[in-house]
Design a protein that fits this description.
The protein folds into three domains: 180 residues, Glutamine Phosphoribosylpyrophosphate, subunit 1, domain 1; 181 residues, HUPs (Rossmann fold, 3-Layer(aba) Sandwich), CATH 3.40.50.620; 100 residues, no CATH class. Helix 4 packs antiparallel against helix 12. The chain is an alpha+beta fold. The strands form three sheets. It has a six-stranded antiparallel sheet, with helices on one face. A six-stranded antiparallel sheet has the order 4-5-6-7-11-12, with no helix packed on it. It has a five-stranded parallel sheet with strand order 15-14-13-16-17, covered by helices on one side. It contains 21 helices and 17 strands. It comes from Marinilabilia rubra.
Length: 571
């Protein structure tokens, strides 16, 4: 549960406002569940609706909070008063002000629209567009979706919608109808201390964060992989709370269970070490029509991300969790430090900030036909900022709010989510570390290793890879149909459509059930040290080539989202 729409008007709201909000809730609800009744409030000049509420939302005096606070704050609802730590989006209101508040990394997106009569905010772009009953396509998303598979920094499908940045407050003065935005900047500044001192500081932040969170383990579950993030969370849950009812879950392809270096196998072994239940869910291709599966993917995630591979089951996993009474999941998104980098190019590529100009088979057409693609000044390298600091700032200020948050959106129609490792306390500690302790999460890994049994770290993911999922015949047939539509001709140049259609491929029918397709180049890629991979990227950028099927799928998303957002409903 996390989709909401929140409306403030200068004048008294109309008599059909409640019905309008009910219809919007129906449009946002997944078609594979029987949802809870929406929570709707209409009062004079304010109205809001919560889609499929499951009891985790908080409301107080016309203010609304979605997600989880990591602090106990009684007066959270008062505008401009308290800014708690947590994984949340807040909508606050009183007689003078209206305020939108994002958490430390904007892990839960908030969009808003404003004109001279109304202010509309939502966790859903589509909800605002439905309320306005018209759509103005933002062409600037085209190059970003093509080069990154997401909408790009702060961009939305509709040119009129705005994004609330990480760790920010957007305040509307209801008297003069003016907006003020305040943002706490993300700054990495090394504190000159010993590794022992840094470790103690980070361990204290981790301990305090987990001590402050109270999960009902009968209603909350921990996704468990074979990696460091989820086992770190498990170790702190075990030490700070009574976990006798804790449930863990893992998902992926059926074939992954037999791979001893895989998430699926190692998660089962890890849970067994602590006598904690672990349920494995298959995400193989659904038996439902591919068109229905893809439509559900686009409706649930609103086309913010292209990562279809983990949802080929048609969201059966998330329906199962919802039907079984699971309220939320404890995710392992984190900002402990990312991979080694050697140049501005490898920094950008490592966090998913590629440009069309980076790809030899896209740069010419993009320059000729797409809107200009510029990296915002706020995301460029700062003076005296090392490559590693820049990379980790981009990870927290770009990758988390625009890629990881988009992955969260896909699930939030079914369950709530909490991201303990994105606590402001923890991120503040990480931002003071020297580069070598953030490189590939070095210090965090040392802490986790000291707390957990010596069970190997997974080297392979249990899920399918997107390059396989977009080669399935059922999916390719739908892509080809969309690329041959009249709308496709309106959105894309003929030379790009012809190029993509002439080179689109269909894979062996078994490949979509492989988490790791076998190929010599892929084996070599895994064996090469990261420094050599970065060297090759730096010196072969002119030959970087985007997978043609992936390019076609991203075009498919742009076409289908235009169709969806242009649809007229009786709102």
């Amino acid at each position: 549960m996390a989709k909401t729409i929140w409306v403030c008007s200068k004048k008294q709201l109309g008599e059909f406002t409640e019905k309008k909000l009910q219809n919007i809730c129906s449009c946002l609800t997944p078609d594979n569940i029987t949802p809870n009744k929406p929570e709707i409030l209409v009062e004079d000049k304010l109205a809001f609706a919560v889609v499929n509420p499951n009891g985790t939302q908080q409301t107080k005096e016309n203010s609304l909070a979605l997600g989880v606070f990591f602090d106990e704050i009684k007066n959270w609802h008062i505008p401009q008063k308290h800014y708690p730590d947590g994984s949340y989006s807040m909508f606050r209101y009183d007689e003078k002000f209206l305020e939108l508040v994002s958490d430390a990394t904007a892990s839960r997106a908030i969009w808003y629209y404003m004109d001279d009569q109304q202010f509309i905010a939502s966790s859903s772009q589509r909800a605002i567009i439905l309320y306005l009953d018209n759509f103005e396509f933002n062409e600037n998303v085209i190059p970003w979706m093509m080069s990154t598979g997401c909408l790009g920094p702060s961009l939305s499908w509709d040119k009129r919608l705005n994004f609330v940045p990480p760790d920010s407050s957007v305040v509307l003065n209801r008297k003069d109808w003016r907006l003020k935005t305040s943002t706490t900047p993300i700054v990495f500044k090394e504190e000159k201390s010993t590794e022992k001192t840094h470790r103690k500081h980070l361990e204290n932040a981790l301990q305090k964060t987990f001590e402050s969170i109270k999960f009902d383990y009968k209603r909350w579950a921990l996704p468990l992989s074979g990696g460091y993030d989820s086992r770190g969370i498990l170790s702190y849950l075990l030490s700070t709370s009574d976990t006798k009812d804790l449930k863990t879950l893992t998902w992926g392809l059926k074939s992954s269970l037999s791979d001893k270096k895989n998430d699926a196998y190692l998660a089962k072994r890890l849970s067994g070490e602590f006598n904690i239940s672990n349920q494995y869910y298959f995400t193989n291709l659904s038996e439902e029509p591919a068109e229905k599966v893809l439509d559900r993917f686009l409706i649930n995630g609103e086309g913010r991300l292209d990562n279809f591979a983990g949802y080929m089951d048609g969201f059966k996993l998330w329906k199962t969790l919802f039907d079984s009474g699971i309220q939320g999941i404890i995710r392992g998104d984190e900002g402990m430090g990312w991979t080694d980098v050697s140049s501005s190019l490898t920094v950008r590529l490592s966090v998913g900030l590629a440009l069309c100009s980076d790809y030899s088979n896209l740069r010419y057409i993009a320059k000729k036909h797409f809107p200009d693609q510029e990296i915002p000044e706020s995301l460029k390298q700062r003076k005296n900022e090392s490559l590693k600091q820049w990379q980790d700032r981009l990870y927290q200020g770009y990758h988390t709010p625009f890629i990881l948050s988009s992955l969260g959106d896909l699930k939030l129609s079914y369950v709530e989510m909490a991201n303990p490792l994105l606590s402001r306390k923890i991120l503040s500690a990480v931002r003071t570390l020297p580069d070598y302790l953030r490189k590939d999460r070095a210090l965090y890994k040392k802490i986790v290793n000291s707390r957990m049994p010596k069970i190997p770290i997974a080297r392979h993911h249990a899920e399918a890879v997107i390059s396989n999922s977009v080669r399935q015949k059922k999916v390719v047939d739908l892509i080809i149909k969309a690329l041959n539509s009249n709308l496709a001709s309106e959105l894309f140049p003929e030379e790009l459509l012809n190029q993509v259609l002439s080179k689109i491929k269909i894979s062996d029918s078994k490949k979509h059930n492989e988490a790791r397709p076998f190929s010599v180049p892929l084996i070599l890629k895994r064996l090469l040290p990261l420094k050599i991979k970065n060297f090759l990227k730096d010196h072969a950028s002119s030959r970087m080539f985007m997978d043609n099927n992936l390019m076609a799928f991203r075009m498919f998303i742009i076409i289908k989202m235009n169709e969806l957002l242009q649809e007229k409903h009786e709102i």
